[in-house]
């Protein structure tokens, strides 16, 4: 699959998305930041002059990212709708610069709260703009694979943070991360606006040139019949979309709309209530409480690397195997792995001698993140545009992404408190139960969308 990207046909799509994912990887660093840093902030060695933070403050450090994410999703949806995907992308580094500046200069927990809020603005923008940018420029044959890169780059940032967060000085990481937005702005500035956005503005010639760029067609003489068909389909789709009346309530009540919105909300709920994002946020604390005999610092690196391995597995097979099977395997595997983690935690809390099984929590968490990365944390970000009716694709994606951030707030805010009150086993068993219910829903209600043409109207949406 990687060799396909290096082929003449696809390499510009891959290079454009790789440039965009500089900010995605930077956001991944902020996602992973609490895992090594919260244990530090709660310890006597905290860099904050006021002393160690409380469990309640730690939960707010995790949750304020989700508040920013909710606002960022809506804000960037408005930006890319009215000004285009490229403008939306170029604004992503602004909150990123603010958040790391606050971490660098902050001397109390309120600086951290605000930094996490601005981190959420960036994350909301990534969730809102990047999947639609990919859907706009990607060839349908590799759209799923290119969509998988979003989570891969988030987890590249996560691995960086898990690997270095316990070894670099508290204020060294923000100094490093302030460099990333510069490279992002320089590279993305050279990318053309997406063909669909240009067509919506009536710029037909520029739209054709943009599609030629992303299909690596150098001039008029090298246009292929396949390219001409694709551009005609895109032009017909966008022009017919533009000629329609404004959205009405009736547009949301068609069977296709109800099914698409249900699937969008479901996959985003599964993404969060499976507990994976909360586990990534509080992995350091979980390892401290799980009774593992492995160094928690090394365990963080192990699970982060296996998380990326899961992403790479999805990346290589998603356009061959399909979305539904990966989502099904992922939900079943995560549920089972969390059940095992909960069982170990329960027996340990009950006083059983688990000598010789100190490795089990690391294995269970590693399998949770590996199997989650195959589907639960990956598929939702690009399946949503594929299941929505064309007229509702933008608003449906925004609704789903906004709810994702709200679900994330609930999980990230409650997880550390639940781990204190009902222990690790009670907390992860709830997430395991969510996955069990999800398996049934996936089997009976989630369609396969592999290879779906997003530029062709469905009958029910005409």
UniProtKB/TrEMBL annotation:
<keyword id="KW-0813">Transport</keyword>
<feature type="transmembrane region" description="Helical">
    <location>
        <begin position="87"/>
        <end position="105"/>
    </location>
</feature>
<dbReference type="InterPro" id="IPR005828">
    <property type="entry name" value="MFS_sugar_transport-like"/>
</dbReference>
<feature type="transmembrane region" description="Helical">
    <location>
        <begin position="58"/>
        <end position="80"/>
    </location>
</feature>
<feature type="transmembrane region" description="Helical">
    <location>
        <begin position="146"/>
        <end position="164"/>
    </location>
</feature>
<dbReference type="InterPro" id="IPR020846">
    <property type="entry name" value="MFS_dom"/>
</dbReference>
<keyword id="KW-0812">Transmembrane</keyword>
<feature type="transmembrane region" description="Helical">
    <location>
        <begin position="395"/>
        <end position="416"/>
    </location>
</feature>
<feature type="transmembrane region" description="Helical">
    <location>
        <begin position="261"/>
        <end position="285"/>
    </location>
</feature>
<feature type="transmembrane region" description="Helical">
    <location>
        <begin position="111"/>
        <end position="134"/>
    </location>
</feature>
<feature type="transmembrane region" description="Helical">
    <location>
        <begin position="359"/>
        <end position="383"/>
    </location>
</feature>
<feature type="transmembrane region" description="Helical">
    <location>
        <begin position="325"/>
        <end position="347"/>
    </location>
</feature>
<dbReference type="GO" id="GO:0005886">
    <property type="term" value="C:plasma membrane"/>
</dbReference>
<dbReference type="Pfam" id="PF00083">
    <property type="entry name" value="Sugar_tr"/>
</dbReference>
<keyword id="KW-0472">Membrane</keyword>
<keyword id="KW-1133">Transmembrane helix</keyword>
<keyword id="KW-1003">Cell membrane</keyword>
<dbReference type="GO" id="GO:0022857">
    <property type="term" value="F:transmembrane transporter activity"/>
</dbReference>
<feature type="transmembrane region" description="Helical">
    <location>
        <begin position="176"/>
        <end position="199"/>
    </location>
</feature>
<dbReference type="InterPro" id="IPR036259">
    <property type="entry name" value="MFS_trans_sf"/>
</dbReference>
<keyword id="KW-0762">Sugar transport</keyword>
<dbReference type="InterPro" id="IPR050549">
    <property type="entry name" value="MFS_Trehalose_Transporter"/>
</dbReference>
<feature type="transmembrane region" description="Helical">
    <location>
        <begin position="422"/>
        <end position="446"/>
    </location>
</feature>
<protein>
    <recommendedName>
        <fullName>Major facilitator superfamily (MFS) profile domain-containing protein</fullName>
    </recommendedName>
</protein>
<feature type="domain" description="Major facilitator superfamily (MFS) profile">
    <location>
        <begin position="1"/>
        <end position="450"/>
    </location>
</feature>
<dbReference type="InterPro" id="IPR005829">
    <property type="entry name" value="Sugar_transporter_CS"/>
</dbReference>
<feature type="transmembrane region" description="Helical">
    <location>
        <begin position="297"/>
        <end position="318"/>
    </location>
</feature>
<feature type="transmembrane region" description="Helical">
    <location>
        <begin position="16"/>
        <end position="38"/>
    </location>
</feature>
